[in-house]
Amino acid sequence: MTRPQPRDAFKSPRFAQPATFMRLPHATDLTGVDVALVGVPFDSGTSYRPGTRLGPREIRTQSSLIRPFNHFQQIGPFDHLTVIDAGDVDASPISLELAHQAIESRIGEVVAAGAVPLSVGGDHSISLPALRAVARAHGPLGLIQFDSHIDTWDEDFGSKLFHGSPFYYAVTEKAVDPRRFVQVGIRGPMYGADDFAFQREHGISVLDIDEVGRLGVDGVVAEIRSVVGRGPVYVTFDIDVVDPAFAPGTGTPEVGGLTSREALQLVRGLAGLSIVGGDIVEVSPPFDGPGQITSVLAANLLFEMICVVARGRQP
Ligand code: MN
Ligand code: MN
Question: Which fold has domain 21-312?
Answer without folding.
Answer: Arginase; Chain A (3.40.800)
